[in-house]
UniProtKB/TrEMBL annotation:
Organism ancestry: Bacteria, Bacillati, Actinomycetota, Actinomycetes, Streptosporangiales
A Pfam family reported for this protein in Swiss-Prot or TrEMBL: ABC_tran
Keyword Transport carried by entry: yes
SUPFAM superfamilies in alphabetical order: P-loop containing nucleoside triphosphate hydrolases
Gene3D superfamilies associated with the record: P-loop containing nucleotide triphosphate hydrolases (3.40.50.300)
Residues annotated as domain ABC transporter: 4-229
Signal peptide: none
UniProt KW Repeat keyword: no
Record's protein name: NitT/TauT family transport system ATP-binding protein
GO MF entry, a single one: ATP binding
Domain of life: Bacteria
Sorted UniProt keywords: ATP-binding, Nucleotide-binding, Transport
Length: 229
């Protein structure tokens, strides 16, 4: 089943100005349920823009995007996505547990129910012992695990991640790569993952979309037989 359908999408920044940038040019891409797709390419090739257009954080200039057979805007309003960025973006004045339950709180879920769900998500990222801590008491890798737990709290059908491991040291990055595979396997979430690391893309993905360094174009698509099931 197709979950994300990107059809002939263009994105031009500053279209009328003299610094106009064609960040996406005629992008065609479909992503099936349960896939782990990496968008791979050098800095500036349009990976983030493509992800942001899928998430309806940036409007496309032309073309059509359907998510779960509705518009990207509707999908965003229905909370079909969880998102993780390079920076964890936790609320410093909230405990770990209250950060993770925030999406459910915003959605109006009752306290006991959202607390149980958040605790389950903290188990998933092995941070149960830290639910009363505050973000500043955690390492960068732990904060990023909290951020992943928070993105999964409302059981989104799609997880969109923009270089989520980019700010981590190598050991933390490798640890979290295996964790992500485990989480993907256990939650069956469809994942779109932006990275400029070839090894990361090949290690994690069931499919790698390689973007051309000349911005805005897909240079090729590689199906990966996961070497580490
Ligand atoms: P990547 O994620 O692959 O590093 P981006 O999607 O961030 O690439 O950027 C693609 C191109 O679009 C780059 O040339 C970048 O400078 C440009 N761009 C991205 N965001 C903006 C913006 N808000 N305004 C103007 N240009 C932008
Ligand atoms: P309580 O647990 O006492 O009901 P809340 O959890 O509602 O308090 O809010 C605690 C803090 O988090 C407040 O400073 C509030 O402004 C902030 N906050 C709550 N929801 C959001 C949100 N969606 N985005 C940003 N800040 C929020």
């Amino acid at each position: 089943r197709v979950v994300i359908d990107v059809d002939n999408v263009d994105k031009v920044f500053d279209a009328s100005g003299k610094n106009s940038v064609a960040a996406l040019q005629g992008i065609d891409l479909t992503i099936d349920e349960g896939e782990f797709v990496s968008l791979l390419g050098p800095s500036g090739c349009g990976k983030s823009t493509l992800l942001r257009v899928m998430a309806d954080l940036t409007a496309s200039t032309s073309g059509r995007i359907e998510v779960n057979e509705k518009s990207a805007t509707q999908a965003r309003q229905d909370r079909d996505y969880g998102m993780v960025f390079q920076q964890p973006g936790l609320f410093e004045w909230r405990s770990v547990l209250r950060n993770v339950e925030l999406p459910l709180q915003v959605a109006g879920v009752a306290k006991e129910q959202r607390r149980q769900r958040a605790q389950k998500m903290l188990e998933l990222v092995h941070l149960s012992d830290f639910e009363r801590h505050f973000p500043w008491q955690l390492s960068g890798g732990m904060q990023q695990r909290v951020s992943i737990a928070r993105a999964l709290t409302s059981a989104p059908k799609i997880l969109l991640m923009d270089e989520p491991l980019g700010a981590l040291d190598e050991m933390n990055r490798e640890y979290l790569q295996s964790e992500l595979l485990r989480i993907w396997d256990s939650t069956k979430t469809t994942v779109v993952f932006v990275t400029h690391s070839i090894s990361e893309a090949v290690f994690l993905s069931s499919r790698v979309v390689i973007m051309s360094p000349r911005p805005g174009r897909v240079a090729g698509v590689v199906e990966v037989d996961l070497p580490y099931p």
